[in-house]
Write a structure and sequence with these properties.
- The chain has helices spanning 23-34, 53-56, 85-97, 114-117, 121-130, 158-165, 188-199, 216-221, 233-236, 250-257; strands at 5-8, 38-42, 62-65, 70-73, 76-80, 101-105, 110-111, 134-135, 148-152, 169-175, 178-183, 206-210, 224-227, 241-242.
- With 261 residues, it is an alpha/beta fold.
- The strands form two sheets. Strands 5-4-3-2-1-12-13-14 form an eight-stranded mixed β-sheet. A six-stranded mixed β-sheet has the order 8-7-6-9-11-10.
- The chain is globular, with a radius of gyration of 18 Å.
Length: 261
């Protein structure tokens, strides 16, 4: 089999909601390497939010992060789309004006304001997970570095916010309470295209593994799209193959099915 490039989402694909990575998943990715294939993380998380030693210790060749806005290969950044300062300020002012609560996501830091999230479980998780790499939005006003953002969208004016910022972003709506704002022209799919250009690889020789709405773009563009059994219905509609659940050896079984291992 010729060299293939495999792209893996993190949440719901490589690990579950508790951060559990199946032993079979680790085995499959390491066998991919032994068979001469490449393996990349492809995530909506920005690089600052990808730091688990258990995850990185699997041995990926690189990371497509922030929905294609950041690309790392062999430990070095080869691409980074920073949101320019003027647009960054406009963005934060606009989401706050409409009552949305932002988390700014960069390659080195995440930014949010404690008062926006209070005792919210996700806010508490971000604080404990990020440590010193989580900074205040208001205390670093206009000095942020970020390539995308996520917002808590419990507001009666969410659509108005989307409308005002639509010349600059597209929106990945996970549910009525959470949405990602990604710069126009960037998706997990464009990240795959850039990697293919780097390695002079036909996109037909790529495999994408995902489970949710923010995986749709990479599932559509990859040569072969694989959705986890625990994935959402909207993701499964884009699948060439639906594998078993993440904790039921989903990645291993799919790699075996396609002869990658």
């Amino acid at each position: 089999m010729s060299k293939k490039i495999c792209f893996f989402d993190i949440d719901g694909t490589l690990w579950d909601a508790k951060g559990t990575i199946p032993v079979s998943t680790i085995s499959a990715i390491r066998q991919l390497h032994k068979n001469g294939h490449l393996a990349f993380i492809n995530t909506g998380r920005t690089r600052a939010f990808v730091h688990s030693e258990d995850l990185l210790g699997i041995g990926f060749d690189g990371i497509v992060a922030g929905c294609g806005t950041q690309i790392e290969y062999n430990g070095e950044f080869i691409f980074y789309k920073k949101i320019e300062d003027e647009l960054a300020i406009k963005t934060v002012e606009t989401v706050k004006k409409y009552g949305l609560k932002p988390i700014l996501e960069g390659k080195d830091y995440l930014y949010f304001d404690n008062e926006d999230f209070g005792d919210d479980p996700y806010g508490e998780f971000i604080k404990s997970d990020m440590g010193d790499n989580l900074l205040s939005i208001k205390n670093n006003w206009g000095k942020w570095e970020f390539s995308k953002l996520s917002c808590a969208t419990k507001s009666d004016h969410t659509q108005e916010c989307f409308d005002e910022l639509s010349p600059y972003y597209h929106f990945l709506v996970h549910n009525p309470e959470v949405a990602e704002f990604v710069p126009l022209g960037f998706t997990k799919g464009t990240g795959i295209q850039k990697i293919c250009e780097l390695f002079d690889t036909d996109i037909a020789d790529t495999y994408a593994f995902g489970d949710s709405v923010n995986d749709i773009d990479m599932l559509k563009i990859a040569g072969t799209s694989i959705v986890m059994g625990n994935g959402t219905d909207v993701a499964k509609k884009e699948a060439d193959f639906i594998t078993t659940d993440i904790l039921d050896d989903g990645i291993f079984n799919a790699c075996k099915h396609f002869g990658l291992i």
